Amino acid sequence: MAYNKPLPVPQGESDVYWQKAKQGELWLRNCKSCGNAYFYPRDISPCCFSKDTDWIQASGKATLFTYGIVQRAPHPGFVDDVPFVTAVVELEEGPKMATNIVIEDPTPENLQIGMALEVVFEDITDELALPKFKPV
Amino acid sequence: MTDLRKTVAIVGVDESDEIGKVPNKSNLTHHAEAAYNALEDAGMSMKDVNGLFTAGTSTLNLAEYLGIEPSFTDTTAVGGSSFIIHIAHAMAAINAGYCDVALVTHGEAGRSRRSRPGGDAADPGSQFETPYGFLGAPINYAMAARRYMHEYGEDKTRQAMAEVAVATRKWAQLNPKAYMQDEMSFDDYHNSRWISWPFHLLDCCLVTDAGGAYVITSAERARDAKKKPVWVLGAAESHDHNLISQMPDLTRTVAKNTGPLALERSGVTHDDIDLAMIYDSFTYTVLATLESLGFCGPGEAPDFVANQRTAPGGDFAMNTSGGGLSYTHSGMYGMFLVLEAVRQLRGECGDRQLDDPKLCLINGTGGSLSSTGTTVLAVD
Fold it and tell me: Could you tell me if residue B125 is inside a domain?
């Protein structure tokens, strides 16, 4: 069945992020003024409002910061997925991002806050892959 | 800082003609009916209105329907808290002389609407949250509630969420306009189905069709109004994120700033407050808000609301209308906090009327716990 969840639409500021994701890599924007990586990618950093920024490759390691287990699909594209896990993960480089946890049996017992995770990439179209996370 | 206490007053409030499940009425119909009713409550007409405030639609759309040409127009839209923030904006505008009778309206056919608002595909949320199913408040707010449980204890938090749901329903049973009138036991709460763990169905606000409006005016005009003026003492507003994944602290809203500032501007303290109207989009929202406002410390809300302390007869009066959880919640509920606050301060609440309340604190939350507006209202 065709993929029918909402699709991200890459923008000028995020093209690199999505191109790298398709290659199986997670890249972040980094503020050279203060040396901190940030999320989501934008040209001017939110920490220093600096234009002196570049891209860095993230390790793909993260910990589970918080999550919910969705029991009622919020969109027709998710009907076959419930229950599924929406989560905020804390990347090793510091920033937090929204994602899904790829796990067979999504129960509170199997999802411990602070647990170690690593990035995986789900191909969703010919051009796009979504970074998700699974327990290490 | 200029002392603006009692320079403006709310002089009219009301809902739209029918609220709850109202097929065949649009958002704008609810706006207009509520405006009509609130003006009647104030003893004013649409001809008096020269300041117009709303959220959810543009004042362009609204003013055309109402047939007015406002001299002050404000579509501040930061979620369900907007209608609390409009009080502060109207206070500023009236004191600046830009208008003297401000109408603030809300209308949303949340249950029966025939169209759904679409997002901008270029927005960060469309790229970095919605593809993962971060769609709708129950999913977004669950992130915050789960984190709170981690920091302060799951069982304690769960019990507190149940306390809020059950206490709020008891108030609804005293409000003839409340959508949910059936008794709710603790077992009913714990047995209700999961929507987005850790939220049961009975942790979540209703989805109804409803409108509401209030009229706010200068002290001078307020003295000629039909009913006793409900004075605005002070207000404050802020926001610290848009996307839930970017919230700086999932257990603290910006009420941590707006609460103390609104109280300071009002010249009163927490202990002076007779009624707290707290936006209860979810049971959890109440816990985080009470702590952020400073009614209790971080992690102390479960003890604060224990033993049905916020229910009728309890010693902390809160959400006496039955709240977004059991009275009505059309989508942006903040408006209805104001309606109940004014009615309680006027003594119009029938079976649920508090004993001569003088001061009410209102706190609206909007977006994904993103924005807050805090206001203190008073009667002489």
Answer: no
